[in-house]
Amino acid sequence: MKNAVRPAGAALAAFTFLAGTAACTTPSAPESPPRAVSTLPRKTHEPGPPSEQQLSDAATAALTDSDALSDAGTFVLSAAGGIDGSDNQSQIEPGTRLAVEAACAGRGSVTLTVTSGSAETRRRLDCGDTPHAKTFPFTTRADSIFFAVDRGAATHGGLAYLAYRRPASEHR
């Protein structure tokens, strides 16, 4: 019996050794690398100032809907964009009675000058966060109408204006 125990003990020792070795060499899931913790203060993303296009869209929204004017057959012209480059000229019949609407969004102020032949009208527009349209009558005196914009030195914004034929009930 002594001879039978030795091979069983040797087999048991060999099995234990191999099982231990296998357990030590069995690949396990990789450990996650340690997470870096930032000690820097977080930067908050502050949006920059609105673009001229966004300001122009805000100014346009303050005006009468040009589609409705077009459907009524009274629409003449409109323009919108950054303040610089807002000058515009269009052909029109002399003696046309118009309503001109203009609005400016942003900061500062602009002067809108409308000219047709000897007729000229100037309107100062304040550019604000919430633009308000100014409306004024204008009668053409030539076959073209010209819109010119002068801005203050610190003015930044978007401008929109439109002209439409005044209803006969408003002619005086």
UniProtKB/TrEMBL annotation:
Keywords: Signal. Residues 1-22 form the signal peptide. Residues 25-54 are annotated as: Disordered. This is Lipoprotein. It comes from Streptomyces agglomeratus. The lineage of its organism: Bacteria, Bacillati, Actinomycetota, Actinomycetes, Kitasatosporales.
